[in-house]
Structure formats: structure tokens, C-alpha cells
Write a structure and sequence with these properties.
The protein is mainly alpha-helical and about 280 residues long. It is built from nine helices and four strands. It has two domains: about 150 residues, no CATH class; about 100 residues, no CATH class. It is elongated, with a radius of gyration of 22 Å.
Length: about 280
């Protein structure tokens, strides 16, 4: 996993996910809740899949990879728009752009689903009451979700993230390098994600990554190892004075490209590069 940056421009963020439209959708949801409360019915919500229009931009920001496991996803499947906080529990964030990231289907559907864990104080739910007017609901909706182009609102939303202290890393907000390390296990041909510090917090977040989106599933560990072998062979070639310079230059450039944001498992390669020190072409 690598840090991600959201492009917060009108060209990047679809119009239906900024300005008045998300507020209108949230007010409609709140009206549905109010109606069920008035009728004494159980509140069960269904959401229209409006977030598909965000997928192209989200994939662009991840380099066409899953934001969690960094496996290329757009090549063989278009991937999912993942609700970081599940809409079944955080219903008011169902149409919030800052709650989206691009995920592979395996991380999102086979593993994560509606799972979400945190160690701090839960993000407060907007309280919808049966006696609220439409104006009351609109006021409540306006203060409950951030506009992705409103910097102060986004800052407040991100501050609430740290207060809630989720166990699963959000690469748009958290710093994955503070939590994850990679261990190559040559005897079985796997690379496993482990805690970088071994402290209780980091270990808990690696454990959550394993359980909630399968960061150490067997097939993924084997894929990472194959990529690691290419990287390891490239470094050995560059460091050998017995290899012609033209080949050393080629593999030097290859290692550099493997650390770029659009490369598969760039977080892993960056980690090993940092551990081994800068690669020098003499």
C-alpha cells in the first residue's frame, strides 16, 4: 500500500458528488428515515449505485491498482468503488466522495464487505427525529458531510477520522509506511506484510488488514514474491561489476520504475529499497 492523493478539482470530481447534489441525496435518505420512524417501521435503507461515475478518477489516482493490495485491477477487471466506511453502517456517507477509493473485487467483495473496525470514538451519526421539518433535515445534512472541494470541511472530516482511529488504513489519509513492512520468505516463495515496528498499534492494524481485506492471502503473497524476485535480480545485476554497463543501466532504470506510484506493489519495492539503501550505478 502506498499513500494516495485526491485530485480536488471540478474536472476530477463529478458534479454529482460536490456542491448541492450530495446534500439533496442525503436529505432524501433522511426523509426516508423520518417516514419510517413516523410509521413505526424498522429503518432499512437501500442505495442507488450512483458512485460508478467516480471510478475512472479513483483508478487514475491509484495507478489502476487496488488501493489496498496494489494489485493491478483495470487490466483484467474494472474493480470496485469501495466504501471505506460501509454504507450499511455509515448510511450518511453513502454518497460522500471522500468515503470512496478504488479496490479490487477480491479485497472488497471476498474479504471486506461491510466489515469495519476502529479503536477510538465512533464517527457520530446524524440524529434524524420523527418531528423534524424538511428545513431541519437540510440543515442537518449540510453539517453532516464534507464537500470534496471545501478544504475546511475536508480537514474536519479527516480530523474525525483520526478521532475514530480505524484499524484499517485509509491510504488517502493515513501513512501506510508507518505501519507496514514486507518480509520475503525464500523457503516458501512468498512475501508477507508484517508490522514495521512490532508495537501493539501497528500489529493490530496489520492483523486488521489481513482479516478485513486479505492483505496476506496466499495467492497475493506468491504474486508479490515473483515481483520481488525480478526486483532482487535487477539489483544484483546493477551491483555487479562483471555485467556490461548497458545491461546495468537497463536494470537500474527498471528498479526506479518499480518504485513509481503506478507500478504494482510499489510500496513493497520502496520498502526494500529503503532497507537496502539507494541503488548506485557506478
Amino acid at each position: 500500500m502506498i499513500p494516495l492523493v485526491r485530485e480536488r478539482t471540478t474536472a476530477a470530481v463529478p458534479g454529482s458528488f460536490r456542491g448541492a447534489k450530495p446534500i439533496e441525496r442525503l436529505v432524501d435518505t433522511m426523509k426516508e428515515i423520518r417516514a419510517k420512524l413516523l410509521a413505526g417501521e424498522e429503518v432499512k435503507l437501500k442505495f442507488d449505485s450512483k458512485w460508478g461515475t467516480t471510478k475512472a478518477q479513483l483508478l487514475l489516482e491509484t495507478g489502476n491498482k487496488c488501493a489496498y493490495c496494489e494489485t493491478p485491477t483495470a487490466v483484467i477487471a474494472y474493480g470496485d468503488v469501495e466504501h471505506y466506511r460501509p454504507k450499511s453502517k455509515y448510511w450518511w456517507l453513502a454518497y460522500v466522495y471522500d468515503n470512496y477509493l478504488a479496490s479490487c473485487t477480491v479485497c472488497n467483495q471476498r474479504f471486506k464487505g461491510a466489515k469495519y473496525e476502529f479503536a477510538g470514538s465512533i464517527l457520530p451519526e446524524p440524529e434524524v427525529l420523527a418531528n423534524m421539518s424538511d428545513n431541519d433535515l437540510e440543515t442537518l445534512a449540510t453539517t453532516s458531510i464534507p464537500d470534496p472541494l471545501d478544504a475546511p470541511a475536508v480537514a474536519t472530516f479527516e480530523a474525525a477520522h483520526f478521532t475514530e482511529d480505524p484499524l484499517i488504513i485509509n491510504p488517502y489519509i493515513d501513512i501506510p509506511d508507518d505501519v507496514f513492512a514486507w518480509e520475503a520468505i525464500d523457503a516458501i516463495g512468498e512475501v508477507e506484510v508484517v508490522s514495521i515496528t512490532g508495537d501493539a498499534v501497528s500489529v493490530a492494524k496489520v492483523d486488521a488488514a489481513e482479516r478485513i481485506y486479505g492483505i496476506n492471502r496466499a495467492e497475493l503473497k506468491r504474486l508479490r514474491y515473483s515481483h520481488y524476485q525480478v526486483y532482487n535480480g535487477a539489483r544484483l545485476t546493477v551491483e555487479s561489476t562483471q555485467v556490461p554497463m548497458v545491461l546495468r543501466q537497463f536494470w537500474f532504470d527498471m528498479v526506479q520504475s518499480m518504485t513509481e506510484s503506478g507500478s504494482a506493489w510499489a510500496g513493497m519495492i520502496r520498502y526494500f529499497e529503503n532497507e537496502r539503501g539507494p541503488l548506485v550505478l557506478n
